[in-house]
Protein: Alpha-1,4 glucan phosphorylase
Organism: Flintibacter hominis
Amino acid sequence: MAEYTKAQLTEMIIGKLQRNFGRTVEEATPNHMFKACALVLRDIMSRHQIETGNQVWEGQRRQVHYLSLEFLMGRSLEKNAYNLGLLNTLKETLEGLGFSAADLFEQEPDAGLGNGGLGRLAACYLDSMTTLEIPATGYSICYELGIFKQKIIDGKQVELADNWLGLGDAWLIPKLDETEEVRFGGKIEDRWDENGVNHPEHVGYTAVLAIPRDMEIAGYQTRHTNTLRLWDAKSPVPVDMSLYSRGEYLKAVEQQAMAEVIAKVLYPDDNHYEGKSLRLKQQYFFVSATVQSIVRKHRAQYGTLHNFHEKHVIQINDTHPTLVIPELMRILLDQEGYSWDEAWHIVTHTVCYTNHTVLAEALERWPQALIESLLPRVWQILKEIAHRYQGELERRYGSDQGKIAHMAIIWGGEVRMANLCVCACQYINGVSALHSDILKREVFHDAYLAAPGKFKNVTNGIDHRRWLSQINPKLDALIRDCSGGDEYLIHPEAIRKLENCKDDKSVLKQLEAIKGENKRRFAAYVARESGVILNTDAIFDVQVKRLHEYKRQLLNVLHIVYLYQQLRDNPNMDFTPQTFLFGAKAAPGYHVAKEIIQLINSLAAQISRDPVCKDKLQVVFLENYRVSLAEKLMPASELSEQISTAGKEASGTGNMKFMMNGALTIGTLDGANVEMHQQLGDENIFLFGLTAEQVNQRKREGYRSLDLYQRDHGLKRVIDQIAAGFDDHVSYSSITDRLLFGVGGSMADEYMLLADFSSYCQAHKRALEAYADRQRWNQMSLINIARSGLFAADRSISDYAREIWHVPVRK
């Protein structure tokens, strides 16, 4: 039941327009109207949040603090209205005031405070924690510029700044009275008191103010409200006006600029010293401010930190927030006067770590000299933690230097953040069954043998209310009709009732019609945005995710070139029309990934010009892939490409969004695909390729991709075509050289594209055979939707609450 009527909402919006913008409805622009609506919903959520805060305080409930350098929130107006039960009322109100609700929702910029799946997962988890009524706060940085806007110019990615705050700041509530000070540089001087106790003093430091800008998070069908705290960075030093008067303008604002750069842009490339330094500053800035804030509030309530670990759990989302460990130690030791053992007990019973990757380059390592100069007291504490841990390792492993070197926190002039997490955290979890198994069996094997109870698995999940109900309303209505109501929105496992209709031909026809309508709607959007006309009679085969070699967009390209060559050889062959859709951003400094984007665009341009391909084969690269684009694409997708090298993708969450919207998966047994396969069986998913164990075995045996190239004529022809390039005369031999010979000491075809190519082509044939049998395909699609409940974020968060956080959830 909506809390407010149309008349009440109308009055509130008109009031906001008048008081905040000095506008009547007739004078208001769409920007004014968007902000007025956002402020009205923000007020409602703020009232709920005050109630929630009072209940948590009075009940002395344990709180979850979710630290993540990324939160890919997307748009909030429609989502918040949906969760508050006000979406239909808001739409009617806006139409009554002469505005298009759809246009207004489209007006909002994406809050792109993340690079990809990690940040989107964090956003989904905030929604579920709130819906399940867990007292929780998310923490990150209030980046002025989110992930870049991607422009494709002459086939190449160009990065443009994404200033989302122009409209997005309507959601943010500054809390100036909760500002914290974070210190960088300087040195530590020992101060001994009369009892011979040392009180280290930080002198000569540069201070930066961390100012919270809070975003309220509404839960679904609950007044419980949580907060995403985004820290903004400001200098405490005012502008030196004497320098201004002497004309030294840049010097006058230098200190302010140095402070504010911390919150300027989503954490930068760290492939040069300046990037490393800024990234480390960002990481320490947000964890220091966060810990100080949590400690301050805890002390105000309880007067002591002895029970800190009983009332708080700090979840580290990947290694980026790892400095929370020495920072909490610093506060307990230096400010609160605890002994080392007391402080260590509190820290190790407060902090937990989610690992998101097995890629060695993503397990962060920092130069010890950088930490020493930037964070001198933290460096001292890190040295002591590392020294004590190394002593423990030496007692455990004796003279086995190999094991000690592998597990050490500081080694070879580097600080290893993942090893620090393994040493200090109460629990460590992977994000899919396969991934957690690899952590135990390979990445952290010795640590697992020493403390197996520390290691958990929590398979990732997605916000099914957003990624199904909200973005695919016709499918939502069909599920409700078939399962007798909307129970699945709070209890996602109830979506299984849909499977009772798998043999109902009228339901399968409705499902097909909904997919067709979604395809046409998406095609209309693409035509408006880019002028490209999609063939809606073709199967929509989609690969959207960050561009990374292990995700193997290049394998998809190899197969498309193979199909294209077949069509050129035999234009009259029996050919199922296929439209391949790509969406991906490459990290600005990742040159191979950017070259693959250019290759996709070269191939797309050639195929679009070739009359042989008309109404048969189409390749489209969707520019500037982002949350709001994904919300339009997922309901229209039919075949989901989840083709990473087995053992490389920790989980994936795009695979779950596709499944929930009725797309079928073509994929390897990697990440959460493994659990999807367990749910679906062989008959409802198209698997191919080597398993993780087979990949390792092939590498041990001395895998030679060149042998495959020379043996397989079809594959050789594809590789040769890519090396030579297309009509734009751009050669991609540097890409094919990596596949055949390796580059700079790396092994050839490190991600096993050529090894899996034949199997991948066969899987595509099986998928197209299934697609030709409409009843079979629609039944498979329905079964995918019905068995997707396991992959809801509500289930993931319930697992965290039970296994790791030990907090109750809403029943």
Q: What stands out?
A: The chain has a mean pLDDT of 95. The first strand starts at residue 63 and ends at 67. Residues 30-59 form the longest helix (30 residues).
